[in-house]
Amino acid sequence: MGAAAYNWAQNQLDFSFHAFQDSRGVTVLSPDANFAKDFTDRTAVKVRFGVDAISAASDSCARCHPDGANNGRVVSSLNVTRKYGDTKLTLGGEFSRENFYSATTALASIARDLNKSNTTVAGGFAYSFNQPQLHPDQITESQHSIDAYGSVTQSWTRKTVTQFGYEINQINGYQTSPFLRTSVNGVMTVGNSPDARTRHALSARLRQALPGDTFLDADYRWYHDTWAVDSNTLSLGLSHHFGASVVGGGAYRRYTQTAAYFYEPYYTGTPEYYTGDFRLFPFDSNSVTGRLELTPKGGLMGMPAGTGLTLQYERYKSTTGFEAGIFTGGVRIPLK
Amino acid sequence: MMVLKTRVVLAVAFAAAGLSATACATVQPWQRGLLADSCMVFDSNNTAAYMTHWQESREGSMGGFGVQGGGCGCK
């Protein structure tokens, strides 16, 4: 949950390619395209289309498919923003479909600039209807998610800007992972999670310009839910302009999480709830990211001036033994 | 316990007063050059959205606003 307003970009076309590989041998290749354009002086449209091509060798798949299995996810979204003076109203929808899961989301958000645009107050609401399909069964379950957020972005000086946010998310319906099993009286069994969960997140974010074309970013997020999962996330980053065309940066992220109240390494007797979902285990994680952005003055590879290339690599490691490397390459092309 | 509560309330009140007072100071439009730099803009790139997407498949507290994935294969 990121308690922040959508950033409405200038007219541009973004192509990104993400490559994810983890210590279990799972590879995910994700091309992604984003198109944003102001169609009138008051109306802007943003369209997104993305694919996750998954080479599935994870524990949950390898149990039944020792030779591996493949999956794919397609996500598309459309958002329309209309300006009314200093107020922006956004309405949109998103649709995601993959093997054994589909999600449909409607969302609305509003943002208003105050105090000569030094303060932006934003809020949003989203409703998702998700349908996990039990596998290998053919039973389709349903899940309803309602989410609301509010945030305040404040420019304090010409070098300092902050953002504070709060988000609440209520999920009802089937919330068990149909793929992950745990030991109940020695038998590996698909879990059984409660069918209601309320989630709260508070966030504080800082962007600070430092001397010498260097910038600091610091984000903190506190999270609590009614399954007793508590988490703290802190990330710190530095970016530096190496001349007019190159920005380089690095960031460190630290994440800690407590277990859900019904989590046990294994279960005996007749527990009401039980889970094999590693996202409900207690763990910590650390990640480091390096980033390079190139925006050549005369354009890039024949594309218009202002075209930028982004290269990024992240290394992630958690105390559960999970490790992953994520590479991203992206091209941003400005439109007239 | 009562003393602690009072201190917390006072601290929050002072912080709110301080923030409110400072919020009256405005940065003029011609002073916003650095604030417009992409390094100073929250969520200025699409990479952050992808990072959030894969984190929600690994961490119990992530995900929320917007569409979510199910996760056969990568979970």
Keywords:
heterodimer; A: Maltoporin, Chain A; two-stranded antiparallel ribbon; 1 helix; 1% helix; disordered N terminus; B: 75 residues; mainly alpha; elongated
Question: What does the model show?
Answer:
The complex is a heterodimer of chains A (336) and B (75). Chain A is built from 1 helix and 18 strands. Chain A is mainly β. Chain A has a single domain, classed as TonB-dependent receptor, beta-barrel domain (Maltoporin, Chain A, Beta Barrel). In chain A, the strands form 2 sheets. In chain A, strands 1-2-3-4-5-6-7-8-9-12-13-14-15-16-17-18 form a 16-stranded antiparallel β-barrel. In chain A, strands 10-11 form a two-stranded antiparallel ribbon. The longest helix of chain A has 4 residues. The relative contact order of chain A is 0.13. Chain B is mainly alpha-helical and 75 residues long. Chain B is 41% helix and 0% strand. The chains are: A mainly beta (336), B mainly alpha (75). Chains A and B meet through strand 1, strand 2, strand 3, strand 4 and strand 5 of A and helix 2 of B.
- Binned, the helix content of chain B reads 40-55%
Whole-angstrom Rg of chain B? 21 Å
Which percent range describes the beta-strand content of chain B?
under 5%
Please tell me the total number of domains of chain A. 1
Physical arrangement of strands within the biggest beta sheet of chain A = 1-2-3-4-5-6-7-8-9-12-13-14-15-16-17-18
Distance, first to last CA of chain B? 45 Å
Class based on secondary structure composition and strand pairing of chain A: mainly beta
| Largest interface, C-beta closer than 8 angstroms, per-chain residues | A-B, 105 and 46 residues
Overall mean pLDDT score of chain B?
A: 68
Count of strand segments of chain B? 0
CATH architecture of chain A: Beta Barrel
Structural class of chain B: mainly alpha
Biggest sheet descriptor of chain A? 16 strands, antiparallel, barrel
The geometry of chain B reads as elongated
Quaternary class: heterodimer
Can you tell me the CATH superfamily of chain A? Answer: TonB-dependent receptor, beta-barrel domain
Number of helices of chain A: 1
Tally of DSSP β-strands of chain A: 18
